[in-house]
Amino acid sequence: MLWLVNHAFSRSNSFLLAICASTIILVGFMNWITTKRSALSQIMKQHPKVHQNMMLQEDNHHPEFEQQLMNLVTALEKLSVEKQGALIQKIQATINDTYQPGPQKDSERQLPARVVHSSAWVKYKKLWRGFPLPVLTCDPLGRFGNVMGQYATLYALAHLYNVSVVVHPKMKKQFVNIFPNTSLPDLPGNYSPKDWHKVANIGRLYNYAPIEVAASGLLGPHTFIIKEYPFEIQMFNKFKEDLRREFTFTSKYTAIVQSFLLNITEERKARKELNPVFIGFHIRRTDYIKHAQNQFGASLPDQVYFDRAMQYYRNKFPGKAVFIVASDDMVFIKSKLEKYKDVIFSPGTSHIMDLAILTSCNHSIVTMGSFGFWSAYLTGGEVVYPDIDF
After folding, report:
1. What value does the mean pLDDT of the chain take?
2. Is residue 124 scored above 90 in pLDDT?
3. 3-state class of 350 per DSSP?
4. What percent of the chain has pLDDT over 90?
5. Residues 300-339: tens digit of each pLDDT
6. Quick check: 223 and 188 in contact, CB under 8 A?
7. Do 382 and 363 touch, CB atoms closer than 8 A?
8. Residue 160: alpha-carbon gap to chain centroid
């Protein structure tokens, strides 16, 4: 079934909400304890000393809880995996009994659900290179769309948890000549991996609740580097308009894009055709064919989907729809779509130029992948995407 939506990726948003675990306080923390018991134990063993440097509100001051949690985690390490379940439930109950969510403030009611309620946050006096601890950054892994998702996740963490975030030098290098309006601060000084505590996902389907636990201060006053591929739509969607400004292209790219689209419009005028409605169409292929099968048990959309998606816009904008198609496998895509007169292929000089062109269209069609997501999300029009069972 083909789903047509007026806002980019409402279904993807709800899907990621589901896989990010329940939003009750510290459910992600409990799962994290199961897989990272040794690292957590070391942090908690330092906790009494760290506690001296805390700035806590009176109603959020629980030294007894800190010692109790430390003792429970230490006991957890001594049990076999089969016997850990009951103790994990006890740890969860201890946290829930200690940090009961208070009534939401007006300023919080419009925010997306957070793994750690603000009443449980811990703030510290310690600074790292001028930034209050904890400090988070992200190791930019994957292709360009992945890295954009990692930046957006950092942006959301900074605004949802009021935590210090900095941009990794490798991420800055990818963005510096493309997005001039990014506002997150750069990592000061040199980066050394040994200075950073790793924090990542748990489980198979991208549950990144541990990064919110780190942002809340519950893992201590440390520097954390987020690994793997965080893409927390349920967090950063609240800041969509901010991100559209953050991901504004340089004048170099916008000038080329405007010229490209204007030439298409002028050519249509010369043929006495109607002014075009541009539909950006991104088709992800290459390595994602195996990735989709291995990770999700899914196949990529095929010719049937391509034709149905395009026909939807042809029916909606009779005589006006023009499809601007980009892909990481242009040979394959041209073999499927070059027969259509209303299809124009992106020049394909670079993936950055493809993204700049796609986001300048009026509406979107996507298949799978983070690059296609950003092409539609930043466009802001209507989006057609495949309904795929995972």
Report:
1. 80
2. yes
3. coil
4. 60
5. 899 999 999 999 999 999 999 999 999 999 999 999 999 9
6. no
7. yes
8. 14
The whole-angstrom separation of Cα 198 and Cα 114 is 21
Residue 282, CB-side half-sphere exposure with 13 Å CA sphere:
31
**Whole-angstrom distance, CA of residue 364 vs CA of residue 55:** 48
Residue 280 contacts residue 379 (beta carbons within 8 Å):
yes
Distance CA 69, CA 64 (A): 9
pLDDT digits (tens, 9 = 90+) for 343-361: 999 997 899 999 999 999 9
Burial of 281 (0-12, 13-18, 19+ CB in 10 A): buried
Q: How far apart are the first and last CA of the chain?
A: 14
**Cβ-proximal residues to 304 (8 Å cutoff; 6+ apart), any chain:** none
Distance (Å, whole) CA 107 – CA 123? 19
Closest by Cα among 164, 208, 382, 151 to 281? 382
User: Which residue is associated with the tokens 């449980």?
Assistant: 120
Q: Given this model, what pLDDT does residue 29 score?
A: 40
- Rounded distance, CA 295 to CA 313, Å? 31
Compute how many other C-beta atoms are within 10 angstroms of the C-beta atom of residue 32: 24
